[in-house]
Amino acid sequence: KMTQQMRDLQLAQARKPPGPSSPNAAKRLYRNLSGKFRVNYTSLDEGGAVARAERDRLRKSCLFQSNAALFEAVELQDLDRVQELLKQYSPEELDLNTPNSEGLLPLDIAIMTNNAPIARALLQAGAKESPHFVSLESRSLHVSTLVREAEQRVNELTAQVVNEAPNSDCSDKEKQLKAWEWRYRLYKRMRAGFEHARVPDAPTNVHLSVASSSSVLVTFWEPLSINSAVVTKYKVEWSCSPTFSPLLGEAVVDKLKNLHFTIQGLVSGTAYYVQVSAYNMKGWGPPQAAVPPFAIPSNWREYDGRAPRRRGQAEALDHLLGQVKTVHQHCVCHEPCKNQPQSRKHSVSKSLKHLFHPGSKFLKTLKRGLYLTAIFYKDDNILVTHEDQIPVVEIDDTYSCLLMQDFLWFTKVSCMWDEILWLRQCVTVSQSSCSCILQTRFKMLLAISQMQGLLGIQDLGQVFFEPVKDKQGNILIVTLKEVKTSQTFESVRWVPICKLQSGRKSVSSPEEPTALDTLLVSIQDKLAYHQRSSHALAPGLYLGYLKLCSAVDQIRVLVPERLPNVLCHVKIRSNPNVSREEWEWLQKMVSKEEPVPAESEAEASQNHLFQELQVAIKELMALLNIPLQEAKDFRLYSQEVLDFGDQVSFLLLLPPSDDVCTAPGQNNPYTPRSGFLTLPLQIFELGEER
């Protein structure tokens, strides 16, 4: 960009004030930007109008200088500085797509000097080419004009410097001459880059797949050769004819962070041909047909007209629960609670003060019995009572029933924290039977209500997948909840976990730690499990592995520790949809008695899903530490594709029928490597729903 002196001499009506016009000036600007212009606005007085005006002025000055710095960094081919500015400022703050006084944008300079790394960085930030260049002729004329004017200015300044006697004015002229000589070389380099460039080659790896019953997905890569000019956009075209005549539609892809495009609004069962072409400053290159050349929008459910498994299930359950409530609303047991509000809306800061009230009923030590503890955490801190204890309440001090079934019932109750009062009233009616199970579950509901009342919080979080036990007969049911609010609570103790662990003084011997000791020692693992169990899979089609093991009172399922709410899995591809043609092929393959040879089956070798499955099965076997030769005895579950929403789907890989579920005492020949655990099946189902 031209200096202030240049603008006074030639461009008095320029749209934008220019930045520095030489490498030395650019370096000075970088130093200024890192110091003078990086203002701490939060230190200004927000309450005064003068302070706000001064802040706005400084902000505008900073943004102007950052825009000037971006142009200079591109002209000097300083990739690191360009990336730093793009990270520090938004495209709007940088005026990324506003032309300068020469009618150029940063992207124009980058692509015409053939600086591919800087051009790609600008493109990913949303940079565009100058709107002045509506044709090849307009771009060529514009650059030639810049070269001619710069050359003319260099000649004029050279003559003035030669003819004038040495003085201060002559020194200024020499500085201007150096700046114009540098700019003249830049414009000539831009013109040479434009003249030597050619249209880009066709994109590579253009792949077409079926995205749904009404859409197809096309993915592609950059051309192998860009012919000395960076590709700035792509064009996707589609037609029902292999000759693309007539053309049904086209779309321009100018967001180049991810090279893909979904063509929507198509007719199911109709074949669509797709091709993609690339564009640079010299124009559009030749199109590249997709592989396969056409795709037919469809979904695997069309194979037999099957409806989604979960369609209407949530609504049906809500309706059923409403009917149950209606039947019980006039019950005598509900009279005491009619005058009570359904929800007590205490502020968290007020209600948490119960933790520190001397009359609270949290337990300090455990006797033999069944207990409930609630762990609330934020970052590396944990919520404790006024006595630095994790909140614990008693469920039953004479517990003698089988724990697992009651525990699994408790986990289901955790999906209805807001309905505990109603559940208590319902269970009260049934106590006349004096059932041990019903009495225990009623005590569980009482303990939940007590914990909610003492904490002032209804939602106690997620139940940890197994209770904590000790040799003294104590059993702890643990709930976990992350507090993400940044609000500061009065009189509430958030104690660092490490401090709580080191400060725990157990009354038991080290050889026989209590359940609370065991909980504190393993609390980091439990918090990690809670955080990982809320993570979601990225969109795509996955190959899952179903492996069960049974015990006396439960069935457990193998899951990865890093994502315990999902089966062991590997990703097959990013497109979650399985088309009707793919599902039909899969049914034929599964129905064959002999395995499909990878080399001799011509049809299968051409099937992209077959190749993807081969890669996924090898990866999954390695992950599970199962010899690859054993995979020939495994089976693909061919009854359905497991859909989890619109973005995630699973194909299931099953061991031989005798090995799907390992019985107690049965030897499992293949032990997975570290990084796996087994969850009770009901716990896994609840985590999956979450």
Automatic annotation (TrEMBL):
Domain Fibronectin type-III, chain residue ranges per copy: 202-299
Source domain of life: Eukaryota
CDD domains linked: FN3
BP-aspect Gene Ontology terms: establishment of mitotic spindle orientation; regulation of establishment of bipolar cell polarity
SMART domains for the chain: FN3 (SM00060)
An example Gene Ontology CC term for this record: spindle
Residue span of region Disordered: 1-25
Database matches in PROSITE patterns: FN3 (PS50853)
PANTHER family (alphabetical): ANKYRIN REPEAT AND FIBRONECTIN TYPE-III DOMAIN-CONTAINING PROTEIN 1-LIKE, WIDE AWAKE
Name of protein: ANKF1 protein
Native source organism of the sequence: Urocolius indicus (Red-faced mousebird)
Lineage, opening ranks: Eukaryota, Metazoa, Chordata, Craniata, Vertebrata
Gene transcribed to yield this protein: Ankfn1_1
